[in-house]
Specification:
Structural class: alpha/beta
Strand order of the largest sheet: 3-2-1-4-5-6
Helix content: 25-40%
Radius of gyration: 23 Å
Strand content: 25-35%
Number of domains: 4
Number of helices: 16
Number of strands: 22
């Protein structure tokens, strides 16, 4: 396919790199010379310098009336550039246009996108706020992502000291816990990772990425860590931007008895937020002010979310909050390089809005029919794909044992009607099953081919 990407920031660069590797013809538009030079030097794509909302720049990229461009993705940090680029591209005949929207009002309803002719308009803040709430709720999980429209999820749990899982093989787990719907799809051990198989022995300290139904996550947490999450009582949020506001709003909606403190240094922003939130105590001050945090009871906080616009500040504030006694700290980090520092800093979890947006974009680019939903798991260089088994699929009617799946690929969950279960060797897949596949980034194209998803 011919694809034009407007914006070569963290999201645009990652999407361009992935799609060019898959053999698509990619053109990247970027007006910042440093970013454009990075794309020129590191990626096998065409680079156009300029503002992606200008018709002359888009024309240079091949976006003209009657063009053969299949998809345009606009993912700059400026909504007006993204929307205008998509508007022009759609009228030039580009088949599918995808826009990033930083302003949440653009995605409050489908009206904006529909009226502008934009096929997909995505604000990652909503999905990331859900992820943060889940991390706060399941306190032992260091990473999580929704699956099967919220019915299930993937949770990364460490195997605690004296956990009954330590020393057990995956085969033994099925025997010990026959009523737990869960499967370990990836294990990180001593800085390295692998897709586990039946004979692999788990060890204390392993970080296990586990797929399970949400109604079973509490049982799973107790098995891994020997303890259950306690109800949330107090949460601090530093940063009153779009994401910080979304987290506070969701906490108010989902929990009646949580004491919520939101700290931001901007007085006007604090005054506005205070009128829009009902039960959140909004404090105008410095999130790094130890006296302020202690006065408000940071040492009794079940969670601290650092959601300013600065990655560096969020990491540092998370470290400070942990030192002051916050039970769990979650930092919002947009640069992929910082996401790989989790083993070296005392922050419990890091979430990346850019990664969430990249997942949405990659889903719609790879599966324009809407047949698949993709989750990119950057920390383990792997992907989760949800897709219905289409009519005529070569896998329909086969058991998992008959498929001879290669290493690095496995079926994690199957949803058939109202039933959600972990498939085993003699499980036979049926046409229409909603399956969740885990695979390394290199193996996912093969998995898609086997499924017959388009």
């Amino acid at each position: 396919m011919r694809i034009v990407i407007v914006g070569a920031g963290e999201v645009g660069y990652h999407v361009a790199k992935s799609l060019s590797t898959e053999g698509h013809g990619i053109t990247v538009i970027e007006e910042d010379e440093e970013r454009a030079l990075k794309v020129d030097n590191e990626l096998d794509v065409i680079t156009i310098r300029g503002n992606g909302s200008r018709p002359s720049v888009l024309e240079e990229a091949g976006v003209v009336a009657g063009c053969s461009v299949d998809i345009l993705v606009a993912c700059t940090n400026r909504d007006e550039v993204n929307i205008m680029a998509c508007w022009i591209a759609k009228r030039a005949g580009v088949k599918r246009v995808i826009s990033r929207a930083r302003g949440l009002e653009y995605t409050d309803s489908p009206t904006w996108a529909r009226d502008l002719g934009i096929d997909v308009m995505s604000s990652p803040e909503r999905s990331v706020s859900r992820q943060i709430i889940e991390l706060l709720t399941v306190s032992s999980a260091v990473e999580t992502a929704e699956l099967l429209e919220g019915v299930a999820g993937i949770y990364a749990f460490p195997i605690a000291l004296k956990s009954p899982l330590a020393g057990a093989s995956l085969k033994q787990l099925r025997v010990r816990y026959p009523h737990v719907t869960a499967i370990i799809v990836y294990v990180k051990r001593n800085g390295k990772g692998f897709v586990p198989y039946g004979d692999n022995i788990l060890q204390e300290g392993d970080l296990c990425f586990t797929v399970t139904r949400k109604d079973q996550v509490w049982k799973l947490e107790e098995v891994f860590t020997g303890k259950k999450s306690t109800p949330l009582r107090r949460v601090f949020i530093i940063g009153g931007g779009k994401l910080g506001f979304q987290v506070a709003h969701r906490l108010e909606s989902q929990y009646r008895n949580v004491d919520i403190h939101l700290v931001d240094h901007n007085k006007e922003k604090c005054e506005r937020i205070a009128t829009e939130l009902q039960r959140t105590l909004v404090l105008c001050g410095d999130g790094a002010d130890e006296t302020l945090l202690r006065q408000e009871g940071i040492e009794e906080a079940d969670g601290l979310v650092t959601a300013t616009e600065s990655d560096e500040a969020n990491i540092l504030l998370g470290v400070v909050g942990k030192a002051l006694g916050a039970k769990k700290t979650i930092a919002v980090v947009r640069k992929q390089m910082y996401m790989r520092l989790d083993n070296y800093i005392s922050v419990d979890s890091m979430v990346n809005p850019n990664q969430a947006l990249a997942s949405v974009i990659m889903s719609y680019v790879r599966y324009p029919s809407g047949a698949g939903t993709l989750s990119l798991l950057d920390k383990v260089d792997a992907e989760m794909l949800e897709a219905h088994l289409p009519a005529g699929s070569s896998l329909s009617g086969l058991s998992l044992a008959e498929m001879n799946l290669p290493k690095g690929m496995l079926f994690a969950l199957v949803r058939r009607g109202r039933e959600v279960f972990v498939p085993i060797g003699n499980t036979i897949l049926h046409e229409g099953d909603l399956v969740t596949i885990f695979a390394s980034s290199e193996m996912m194209p093969l998995a898609v081919e086997k499924l017959g998803v388009k």
